[in-house]
Specification:
The protein has four domains: 91 residues, no CATH class; 100 residues, no CATH class; 213 residues, no CATH class; 141 residues. By secondary structure, it is mostly helical. It has 27 helices and no strands. The N terminus is likely disordered. The longest helix is centred in the N-terminal third of the chain and has 70 residues. Helix 6 packs across helix 8 and helix 25 packs antiparallel against helix 27. It is found in: Golgi apparatus, trans-Golgi network. This is Vacuolar protein sorting-associated protein 52. Belongs to the VPS52 family. InterPro entries: Vps52 (IPR007258), Vps52_C (IPR048361), Vps52_CC (IPR048319).
């Protein structure tokens, strides 16, 4: 190793190379020796270097230095390049010595760094050897892992194969082996919920054996086991048959509650019946038929007794004498000819009253006949109808749910076939009950004249049908439709009887008797009609039906025809209008009181329009009676004015004189006539205001004509002496003051 103090006698021209050489020397110097450094020999000077150059080289150097910016600046300033070169050479030498001193001062740290780097190199070499060995070992381990994976995959395949074989063997063993405990339980154990598990196990074995027996190459064990399982099936079927028939037999007692037996007994053992349905259908059919026969008799007997009990509670709300057109004073034929006794609460014949509550706020309970008889209660037909049919749908819901669970196996429960089977069983059971219900409906309505009761039954039937849909019980459609087919024709027949009674009221001999009692006040038929129509409208909602709409139209047409026939007997048009207004007003008022104001129903709008038309005509008739001269004069004068026909001022004088003399008495007479003619004070007030308001309009028009043809000419000096002395008409304000006296009479 070279001594760090041995610096070459002749350094390279580049100071950086000298520094690098010095650093390398220091790195190689031992740490224990610290000799005093010697300054290295300085490189050749610029003059020495230039002396060694040839002319060509000097020329090239000259051109190269000429391009240098520093040299160009020195030349431009006129400085001596040699002096500047020596100055630069001295500065470089000083800087080089300074840098060398700094390097000598840091040589210890540089040596430490060198030793650390060498130590790191040794460590890295050792690590490289370790990693190389570890890499080799990893390669061996990877090979071992791959071999283990291959072995594991092979073992997994073997395990899966053995598990598949074990599973198949388990199925075979479970399907073919008949444990003695199972035989003992099926043949001799008590039938309880645990017995259901035994027969289900037997069913699984039978299904497996029968499936294996139908294969092309059945196992020999199948031929040995199948006969034994079939014998066990026969034993279990016989025991289950006896058990279920014995439980069903308990239903035959009328005092038994069938729902309790179904929930507490039969439902607990429905698995036994499902076993028979799947494994021994003949026995299952026998049990099903026995159940249908038993429950059919049970329900038929109970509902028949219930129907007879309800019939004794019927309160007849209306009979043949309770028609719209029949007078309450009509005499019955017979020996004594007495009037019809009032045995009924007549307020519910044409008006619903609280009968509507049965469809708006129905009671959740059904009627118990013997309790109602003890209380001596009598109820209308719709209450009896609802009670029977409510009991019917409640029992229908319970029975259909039980049939769907007991006679339909879980495998077919959600299939269409299972639903059809449940419907068929239910229809066989409830056929006599439905017939009894139709018979009760026929008995209640066939000879009834209570149209409101029949329509209430129709609404109840609609609600019960919706309730069945809400409960998801898809039965009784035929019964509900058959009930509607009974009720709608009867309702139409009763409405036809009402219309015929109004048609016959003022025909033949009854017409003369009726005309002798004519009165301008509302007719009793009108009141009945209004109450009846309000009731029909209340029931014809949610949803409305065309049958009721058509019935309302027929009743309205017949009432209007009847009122026109009655009005023919009055002597003048004013009395006729008073009669019609009073009747139309009564209809509108009753409809409004029952929640059907104008704009809410076609009937209300129609009669309101009829009333308005008659009032307008009545107003004109009243004005014609007391102020006809004024109306005719105004109309004729306005026509002449429009046609540019001259109007003589003198023609106004008679009209002015008559109006000034009679208008107060005429107003009093009109007021008295309205008070006397209209029983409804509110209606009378409206009519009086209409008459007086129309009078003000006519009189205002008259004043305009008077001012145009008389007053202006008089002021202009064109009038005669006679015109100047005639009376002037009463002012419009004076007439209005007089009119206000009659506004508070109603």
């Amino acid at each position: 190793m070279a001594n760090p103090t041995d610096v070459p006698a002749k350094a390279t021209p580049s100071s950086s190379e000298a520094l690098a050489a010095l650093a390398a020397t220091l790195l190689e110097k031992p740490a224990t020796r610290k000799p005093k450094p010697r300054l290295p020999t300085m490189p050749e000077t610029l003059s020495d270097q230039l002396a060694k150059l040839s002319v060509t080289q000097m020329d090239a150097q000259f051109h190269e230095f000429k391009e240098d910016q520093v040299i160009r600046d020195l030349l431009a300033n006129g400085l001596d390049l040699k002096e500047q070169a020596q100055r630069f050479q001295g500065e470089l030498r000083v800087a080089e010595v300074t840098h060398l001193d700094q390097y000598y001062q840091q040589r210890g740290r540089i040596q430490d760094l060198h030793h650390q780097i060498a130590s790191c190199d040794d460590i890295l070499d050792h690590m490289e050897q370790l990693l190389t060995g570890f890499q080799g070992k990893l390669g061996n381990i990877n090979q071992s892992i791959q071999e283990l994976q291959d072995a594991s995959a092979a073992m997994t395949v073997k395990l899966q194969n053995r598990m598949q074989v074990a599973t198949q063997l388990d199925k075979v063993v479970d399907g073919l082996v008949v444990p003695p405990d199972l035989v003992q339980a099926v043949c001799h154990a008590d039938i309880d919920p645990a017995y259901v598990d035994h027969v289900q196990t037997l069913g699984l074995k039978l299904r497996y054996v029968r499936h294996q027996a139908h294969r092309s190459h059945p196992m020999a064990a199948v031929r040995d086991v199948q006969p034994e399982l079939e014998r066990l099936l026969l034993v279990s079927a016989a025991r289950i048959r006896h058990f279920l028939l014995d439980k069903i037999k308990a239903v035959r007692t009328l005092t038994t509650n069938i729902q309790i037996i179904q929930r507490t007994v039969l439902t607990r053992y429905q698995g036994l019946n499902h076993f028979l349905i799947e494994r021994h259908p003949e026995t299952a059919c026998e049990i099903r038929d026995n159940y249908i026969y038993t429950t059919r008799f049970y329900y038929a007997e109970h509902f028949d007794r219930y129907s007879r009990g309800l019939q004794r509670l019927l309160n007849v709300m209306a009979d043949r004498s309770d028609l719209l057109g029949l007078d309450e004073t009509t005499k019955f034929g017979g020996l004594f000819g007495t009037a019809r006794p009032a045995l009924k609460d007549r307020k519910y014949i044409f008006s619903l009253g609280d009968r509507l509550a049965i469809v708006t706020h129905p009671a959740p309970q059904v009627i118990i006949p013997h309790v109602a008889e003890d209380k001596k209660d009598k109820v209308p037909l719709e209450v009896l109808f609802r009670s029977y049919n409510l009991a019917l749908i409640d029992n229908t819901t319970s029975e259909y749910e039980f049939v769907s669970q007991f006679f339909i196996t879980p495998g077919t429960h959600h299939q269409h076939k299972g639903s059809d089977t449940a419907k068929a069983i239910f229809e066989h059971i409830f056929e006599p009950v439905c017939n009894t219900g139709l018979g009760l409906t026929r008995l209640l309505t066939e000879h009834s004249f209570d149209a409101l009761g029949v329509l209430l039954c129709l609404r109840i039937n609609y609600q019960l049908a919706n309730e069945l849909q809400h409960r998801r019980v898809p039965v009784l459609e035929k019964y509900i439709n058959a009930t509607n087919m009974q009720l709608w024709p009867r309702f139409q027949a009763i409405v036809a009887l009402h219309t015929d009674s109004m048609k016959k009221l003022f025909t033949g001999s009854s017409k003369a008797a009726a005309l002798s009692k004519q009165d301008v006040h509302p007719h009793f038929v009108t009141r009945r009609y209004a109450e009846f129509v309000a009731s029909l409208l209340a029931l014809n909602q949610d949803p409305p039906t065309n049958v009721v709409d058509q019935s309302l139209a027929r009743l309205r047409t017949e009432l209007e025809a009847m009122l026109l026939r009655i009005s023919e007997g009055f002597g003048n048009r004013v009395t006729t209008l008073i009669f019609l207004i009073n009747n139309y007003d009564l209809v509108v008022t009753i409809l409004h009181e029952n929640g059907f104001p104008s704009g809410s129903a076609a009937e209300s709008d129609y009669f309101a329009q009829c009333k308005a038309t008659c009032i307008a005509e009545y107003v004109e008739e009243q004005l014609d009676s007391y102020f006809g001269y004024l109306k005719s004069f105004v109309s004729a004068t306005e026509l002449a004015t429009n046609n540019a026909t001259p109007v003589a001022p003198a023609v106004f004088a008679p009209v002015v004189a008559e109006f000034n003399t009679t208008f107060k008495d005429s107003l009093a007479n009109i007021n008295a006539a309205v008070i006397r003619s209209f029983s409804n004070f509110k209606n009378g007030t409206t009519i009086l205001h209409s008459v007086l308001g129309q009078l003000i309009l006519y009189y205002s028009r008259f004043h305009q004509l008077y001012d145009r043809h008389v007053a202006k000419k008089t002021k202009g000096g064109g009038g005669s002496t006679a015109m100047a002395g005639q009376r002037t008409p009463v002012g419009v304000q004076n007439v209005m003051v007089e009119i206000k006296k009659y506004k508070s009479n109603f």
